[in-house]
Amino acid sequence: MSEQVHNRLAVVRAERKVSRQALATAVGAHYQTIGYIERGQYNPSLDLALRIAAHFRLPVEALFSLEPFRPLTDELYGGPADGTGSADDTGRTPR
Amino acid sequence: MTTTRSNTTRYDTWMLKTMNDARTKRYHATRRARRRIVAAHIAATAVAAAGMVTPLAVSSPWPLVALLVAGLAWIPLMGLLNSMTRGLLELRPRVLDERQLAERGTVHALAYRISSSVMAAALLGFYAAWLTGAGLDALAAPLATAGFGLLVLHWLLPHWIAALRVQDEPEDDEPWAAPDPT
User: Fold this and answer.
1) Where are the transmembrane segments (chain B) (predicted)?
2) Dihedral angle of Cα A13, A16, A19, A23, to the nearest 10 degrees
3) Which residues of B touch A39 (CB under 8 A)?
4) Residue A95 lies in a domain
C-alpha cells in the first residue's frame, strides 16, 4: 500500500479562498488536520477525502492522487507531461 | 472517519472551545517552548509526588509546603499541556476527528510500551531485593512509593508524549480568511 498520497488541497483551497477553519468545519474535521493533510503529514481516510472533494464539487482524484500532480500551469498551457514537475507547484505533499 | 458533532453535549462543546482557546497559543508555539513546559510539568509532578509521599516517613512541614508550591505550578502547566495538544486526551472521542483519534491511539500505544517497561523494571527490582533477603516490612514503604509513582506515570505519561509530538503550526497564509476562532 502506498504511504504517499499527493494532494493539491492547498492550491485549490487558496484558489477558492476557503480558510482551513471554514473547510474543517464544513467537513467535520479539526482545522489542524487540514494543515496536516496539506503538508502530507496525514493521509485522510476515504470518507474525509470524499467529503473534502464534495465540498469543492470536484472529483476526489482532482485533489488526491497516488502519483505526483503536474503543475497547474503545465496542465493549462501545456508543458512537460512526464510527471516530473516541481513538487512545490503542485501541492505535492510527500510523507 | 470524521467527527460526529451532532451527538455533542453542551459540556462537549464547552470543553472543545476551552481546549482550543487561542489565547495560550503563544506560550507553546515553538518546539523549544513545548519541551520546556513538559520538563517543568515533569519536575512539578515529581516534587508534588515527593511532597505527598515524604510525610509518611518524615514529620516535617516542608514536604507539604513543597506539595503546595508544586501543585500551584502544576495546574497551569497541565492547562498548557492540554492547550498544546488541543485536548487530545481530555476530550471525548466524539468531538475528535480521525487524525486526532489516530494520534491518541499512537500516544497511548507509546505510553503503554514505556510504562510496561518501567513496571517490569520495578517488579524485577523488588524481586531482586527479596532474593537478597529484604523482608516485606522493609519493602512496604518502597512498594507503596513505587506503586504511587507508577500510578502517576500511567496517568501523565500520555500527556507528556502527546505534548512532545505536537508539531509547529504553519504561518497563516490566508490573508483573505478571518483569524481562526480557536
Assistant:
1) 37-58, 64-89, 110-132, 138-157
2) -70
3) 170
4) no
- CA A26 to chain CA centroid, Å, is 16
| Sequence-distant (≥ 6) Cβ neighbours of residue A13 within 8 angstroms | A19, A20, A23, A34, A38
Identify the CATH number of the domain in which residue A69 sits: 1.10.260.40
Q: Around Cβ B125, how many Cβ atoms within 10 Å?
A: 12
B4 vs B66, residue with greater confidence: B66
Cβ contacts of residue B179 below 8 Å, gap of 6+? B172
Chain A residue numbers touching B97 (CB-CB < 8 A): 28-30, 33, 48
Residue from A78, A80, A65 nearest A2 by CA = A65
Judge if pTM exceeds 0.90: no
Contact A68, A87 (CB under 8 A): yes
Residues contacting B85, CB < 8 A, separation 6+: B159, B162, B163, B166
pLDDT, tens digit, 9 for 90 and up, residues B85-141: 999 999 999 999 999 999 999 999 999 999 999 999 999 999 999 999 888 888 988
Domain assignment of residue A91, yes or no: no
Note the pLDDT tens digit of each residue in A27-83: 999 999 999 999 999 999 999 999 999 999 999 999 999 988 888 777 778 766 554
